[in-house]
Inverse folding.
């Protein structure tokens, strides 16, 4: 407040000086006319001074008023800030619309809106029987889920596990756990097979679902699943779920002011962390041990992972066209869900592929091959660009009985690129 | 170049052992001997450094190469359908840099351009619509900091202390500032009159990747604070977080934050998709499972000291630091215990907690070198107090997998080495 008023102090000082000067002049003995002139001037000056003072006072009052207003606003703003409201605001909700986006066409909706609801809405017309389902399943699903939906390695088990949900180790399968059949149809249709989602026909999906039901002993082997009888199938665990009841069962109990002192008599360590080896050398499995409280602490290399070096693939192409290798890397994306290549590559659903060209067929350490691969291995057959191209184009045609459930690479240029890419990795 | 000193956990551990053995370590402790780092001209004080544009998009200096996401290989069948962990032990403040924010994919991270991006709103709407990325940029947008926590965070700890590191026990979480368009704005563009009474309606959201990872969200939440986000921490989302567009569902389990969001369908019931029936449901001791357990309850963890962050400086001033969060709103208080829960002290918050966002807490102590059983306990704006592991197990058993928000205990020994333990 004072800052604004100070602006007017110099103005008042100047007018005071002018007044003093005028009275001083009037006391001198000059001619009457001169005196008269001077008196007139003094009078005018006095009037000017009076006006200036009045103006200055008015201005000061105005300034004081504005300052008071500002103080009030500042106080309001401070209060507002304290109470949490400020100038931020959510995105406005307008009357009417912004008119952005365009109408979705029926064909577009049909292509994307494929989800299936628990009551069967969304199912396309179609059907599939258990036997067809078994064929498709062995072809498309068994490499991860096992021939009998029992699961391979860490991949999901789809069958069995009945009445295990209250056990120490529940086995949650489509049969033992899933409450709605629509979930299985919808997920298989939309997201499976892993690495080739969206490629199944409705009839294939019906057949696979029928086979999974059969694997779970929920239907007989002559069962045919269709959009007509879909909702008649009863799921074993359909009443095994309750809607989140934490608010009733937990929240009220856990809202008391907590204890701060003498909350327990004593505290003992009852369990120590089991061993964790996050970056096992040589790709070995990690171990979960049964650490006892008398064990000394084990600190493995959980934080000493060296940064992965940039893949040396492209630099080590050894005369192969880098553009082709790059194209191969891109094409390899369809293989990645099962195969690894490059530094630290290990066997997955399929074998690691470093140095595969020139390598004896079926000879990657630690991988369990199908019979046809074991036979080729016994016969000493070696991977070359020609037989690898044939295998990639039609896996099951060129190596009948292979576990690789993959339809084959359709584009010949992709095959050439893939081979160049694989060639860039030495063993 | 790489032979130059590179801090590693091993050298830290050796360092702490050296301190414990009474060896003088480092210039700071030297008495009477001038520190050559000060008295001798160093290369970096004499030669010039690198110029601008050396790295058009900067990465952390190589000495920080240890601060990375890590995977626990045996948890999942394939890294393509898997999860890794944010190095929360090595971070401070609250914002998670995108480059080390945990990833969870169900069919791998995909490359989708802005030009190829389409978002469809359909189902029970007045007019089904398709938006391009450019359309989204023209709608009013908001900025919010939110945590995203996988429902399975700490899920390996139900049956006992398992993984030795805050990164692994609590690292399925990140916290970013999102820029995006409220989902309600897009639903309003399509019009909800056709949906009638909204109180029993849902939206079903799905991604453009092979898994699609569809989830059902009640309309009330969809119209509340759900964002269709395209920026995080000021820049475009990373591929692994759903570039160019992901859903942000504040306070709710990470699985619902659908990446590469391609479709929002208004429905009259939950779809009961694979991710909301066979997964992300919590089996309790009697075999009955809870479904629709969306909210992430209040939780906290001490990030340092912790198994990956041993005390290396011996006795004296010690900063105990950690993170707290709640899907129900703001964190109002965090208590820390150094004796396994016998006594508690209220910690200092780094700053006032944002709603449904990470809050940093500190307890600054003078460590006398005696062993500690460190615990932290979060309290949120609803008054909910983070439970102990035993309280949780008493209610839910050991097979729930998801939503383990128990109080974590680190045992810190005289040498400053920390270990994941359970206490009585």
């Amino acid at each position: 407040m004072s800052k604004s008023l100070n602006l007017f102090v110099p103005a008042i000082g100047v007018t005071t000086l002018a007044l003093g000067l005028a009275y001083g002049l009037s006391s001198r003995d000059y001619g009457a006319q001169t005196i008269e002139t001077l008196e007139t001037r003094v009078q005018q000056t006095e009037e000017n001074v009076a006006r200036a003072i009045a103006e200055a006072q008015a201005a000061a009052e105005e300034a004081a008023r504005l300052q008071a207003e500002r103080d009030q606003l500042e106080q309001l703003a401070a209060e507002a800030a304290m109470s949490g409201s400020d100038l931020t605001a959510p995105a406005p909700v307008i009357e009417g619309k912004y008119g952005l986006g365009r109408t979705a066409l029926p064909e577009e909706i049909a292509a994307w809106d494929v989800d299936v609801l628990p009551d069967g809405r969304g199912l396309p017309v179609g059907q599939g029987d258990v036997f067809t389902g078994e064929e498709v399943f062995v072809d498309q699903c068994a490499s991860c889920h096992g021939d009998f939906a029992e699961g391979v390695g860490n991949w999901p088990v789809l069958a069995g596990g009945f009445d295990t949900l209250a056990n120490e180790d529940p086995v949650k399968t489509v049969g033992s756990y899933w409450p709605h059949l629509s979930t299985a149809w919808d997920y298989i249709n939309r997201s499976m097979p892993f690495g080739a989602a969206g490629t199944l026909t409705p009839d294939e999906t019906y057949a696979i679902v029928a086979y999974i039901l059969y694997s779970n002993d929920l239907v007989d082997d002559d069962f045919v699943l269709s959009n007509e009888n879909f909702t008649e199938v009863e799921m074993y665990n359909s009443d095994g779920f309750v809607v989140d009841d934490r608010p009733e069962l937990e929240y009220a109990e856990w809202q008391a002011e907590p204890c701060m002192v003498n909350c327990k008599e004593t505290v003992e360590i009852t369990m120590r962390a089991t061993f964790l080896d996050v970056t096992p050398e040589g790709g070995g499995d990690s171990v979960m041990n049964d650490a006892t409280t008398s064990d000394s602490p084990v600190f493995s290399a959980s934080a000493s992972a060296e940064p992965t070096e940039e893949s040396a693939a492209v630099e080590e192409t050894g005369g192969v066209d880098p553009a082709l290798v790059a194209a191969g890397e891109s094409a390899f994306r369809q293989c990645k869900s099962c195969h690894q290549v490059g530094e630290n590559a290990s066997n997955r659903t399929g074998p690691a592929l470093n140095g595969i060209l020139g390598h004896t067929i079926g000879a990657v350490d630690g991988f369990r091959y199908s019979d046809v691969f074991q036979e080729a291995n016994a016969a000493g057959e070696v991977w070359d660009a020609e037989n690898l191209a044939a295998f990639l184009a039609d896996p099951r045609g060129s190596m009948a009985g292979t576990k690789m459930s993959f339809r084959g690479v359709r584009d010949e240029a992709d095959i050439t690129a893939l081979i160049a890419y694989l060639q860039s990795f030495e063993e | 170049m790489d032979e130059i000193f590179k801090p590693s956990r091993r050298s830290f551990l050796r360092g702490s052992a050296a301190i414990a053995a009474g060896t003088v370590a480092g210039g700071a402790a030297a008495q009477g001997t001038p520190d050559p780092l000060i008295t001798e001209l160093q290369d970096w004080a004499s030669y010039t450094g690198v110029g601008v544009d050396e790295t058009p998009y900067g990465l952390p200096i190589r000495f920080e190469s240890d601060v990375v996401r890590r995977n626990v290989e045996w948890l999942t069948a394939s890294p393509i359908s898997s999860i890794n962990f944010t190095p929360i032990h090595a971070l401070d403040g609250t914002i998670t840099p995108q480059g080390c924010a945990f990833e969870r994919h169900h069919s791998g991270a995909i490359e989708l351009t802005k030009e190829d991006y389409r978002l469809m709103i359909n189902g029970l709407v007045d007019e089904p619509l398709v938006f391009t990325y450019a359309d989204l940029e023209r709608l009013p947008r908001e900025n919010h900091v939110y945590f995203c926590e996988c429902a399975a965070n700490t899920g390996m700890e139900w049956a006992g202390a398992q993984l030795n590191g805050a990164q692994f026990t609590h690292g399925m979480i990140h916290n970013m500032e999102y820029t995006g368009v409220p989902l309600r704005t897009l639903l309003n563009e399509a019009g909800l009159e056709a949906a009638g009474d909204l109180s029993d309606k849902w939206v079903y959201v799905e991604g453009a990747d092979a898994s699609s990872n569809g989830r059902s969200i009640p309309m009330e939440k969809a119209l509340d604070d759900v964002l269709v986000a395209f920026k995080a921490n000021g820049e475009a989302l990373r591929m692994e977080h759903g570039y160019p567009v992901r859903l942000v569902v504040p306070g709710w389990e990470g699985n619902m934050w659908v990446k590469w969001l391609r479709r929002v369908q208004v429905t009259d019931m939950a779809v009961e998709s694979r991710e909301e029936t066979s997964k992300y449901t919590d089996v309790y001791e009697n075999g009955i499972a809870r479904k629709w357990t969306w909210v992430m309850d209040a939780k906290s963890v001490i990030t340092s000291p912790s198994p990956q962050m041993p005390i290396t400086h011996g006795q004296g001033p010690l900063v105990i630091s950690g993170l707290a969060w709640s899907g129900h709103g703001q964190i109002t208080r965090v208590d820390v215990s150094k004796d396994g829960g016998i006594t508690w002290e209220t910690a200092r918050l780094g700053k006032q907690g944002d709603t449904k966002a990470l809050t940093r807490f500190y307890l600054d102590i003078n460590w006398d070198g005696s062993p500690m059983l460190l615990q932290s306990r979060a309290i949120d704006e609803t008054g909910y107090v983070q439970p102990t592991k035993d309280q949780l197990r008493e209610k839910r058993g050991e097979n729930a997998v998801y939503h383990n928000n128990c109080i974590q205990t680190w045992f810190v020994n005289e040498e400053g080495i920390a270990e994941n333990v359970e206490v009585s």
Remarks:
- The beta strands of chain A are 102-103, 127-129, 224-226, 241-243, 269-272.
- Chain A touches chain B through 99 residues (CB under 8 Å).
